[in-house]
UniProtKB/TrEMBL annotation, chains A, B:
This is AcrR family transcriptional regulator. It holds the Pfam family TetR_N. GO terms for molecular function: DNA-binding transcription factor activity; transcription cis-regulatory region binding. Residues 13-73 form the HTH tetR-type domain. Keywords: DNA-binding, Transcription, Transcription regulation. Residues 36-55 bind DNA. InterPro entries: ArpA-like, CprB_TetR_C, DNA-bd_HTH_TetR-type_CS, Homeodomain-like_sf, HTH-type_TetR-like_transc_reg, HTH_TetR, Tet_transcr_reg_TetR-rel_C_sf.
Length: 220, 220
């Protein structure tokens, strides 16, 4: 009995994950308004009844895609953190990781698109922005402690500036070049942002730091 | 005869403008996918046939809203240019003007929303970004000449960074605060961007410059 119960629960978890993947594909291709519950059910190979058992509305589903995207991004962020040996390196690796994921992971691409989609105004989507602002602010705080970032800066202010600037770089890269120049745009953005915030001893390091924002050798 | 002809043409121009206004209202409220030609015709008080006489598709209409928004923004930009007495002041006044328009002019709000709407991928919308990058780059070039901006910077690079950063600030302000904090976000953004690019003699002027980005006394 207990094992049956667990198996059923595991199956439900797997179905839920498959639905989120299918929904991500639809949202990524057709935007929020262009996606229907019918299309998601069909893509996931489920009846509409089975879909509604897991998600009661499209807004609910979009919220789950954004939450999943944020979870995937956070995991990658933690992995990125282990690549960097200083706060600024970690910040660069996180930028690299987010860009890489945006290009390669449909759930990330879909989550980011939903997060900037006017039509998705009713969807829960504020947390990713405010969470990343906190992450960036914390790294800036560490950067100040490590003597990499000028202590005159308020870490919270830098967090509030960096996250929207990053968001805009990916939006404009999407509109102008289908994200083909995303790494270039991010390296240019960080070249300017770092020039504003680093201490004099870190200034010569800016080209080395921004060069970390590039496709990994393992990427196509 | 000639006079009749002109009258008919003037009427056509007025109808076209009324359609663009109606479309802007619909796009602003419902996004690209959520807007129908029927709703635009109804809002403009026209038959669908009359609407199609002027615009052959929704993408055509969205392109016209973006073009009109860009025209309005450029006009305001030129007016803003006359308020500033130095290149950096002009850059700040332009930022103020764009923010003010985004809040007060439906066609601008709608145009910007269409310009960042994933669902509007088929719509002509690259020009506003590339045009503003050129405008910003030209002001940076003038700022270098005037000794306000460090000559080590490539004006084109700064243009490519500033415009997406500005775009992202408005997107995030829209998502997090319905644009209520747009001026605050822009002042913070420029505090960082100016710190990166100004010459040492202009550094003490940064607070005065960013303070120009605020609601005008004539605004509500």
């Amino acid at each position: 009995m207990a094992q049956d119960g667990r198996t059923r629960q595991q199956r439900a978890v797997a179905t839920r994950a498959a639905i989120i993947d299918a929904a991500a594909g639809e949202f990524d291709e057709h935007g929020y308004l262009g996606t229907s519950m019918d299309a998601v059910a069909e893509r996931a190979g489920l009846t509409k009844g089975a879909l509604y058992f897991h998600f009661t509305s499209k807004a609910d589903l979009a919220g789950a895609v954004i939450a999943r995207q944020h979870e995937v991004s956070r995991q990658y962020g933690e992995a990125a953190a282990t690549r960097g040996t200083t706060p600024l390196e970690v910040l660069m690796w996180m930028s690299q990781g987010l860009a890489s994921q945006m290009i390669h992971e449909v759930v990330v691409s879909a989550g980011i698109r939903l997060s900037t989609d006017t039509a998705a105004a009713g969807v829960a989507r504020r947390n990713p922005y405010t969470d990343w602002m906190q992450v960036a602010a914390e790294l800036v705080r560490q950067g100040i402690e490590a003597g990499e970032i000028d202590s005159a800066w308020d870490p919270q202010l830098i967090g509030r500036v960096v996250v929207p600037a990053y968001t805009g770089a990916q939006t404009v890269s999407d509109v102008l070049a289908d994200r083909a120049d995303l790494y270039d745009r991010l390296r240019e953005l960080w070249t300017v942002l770092l020039a504003a915030i680093v201490t004099d001893r870190m200034r010569p390091e800016i080209p080395r730091l921004v060069a970390l924002i590039a496709p990994l050798a393992t990427e196509d």
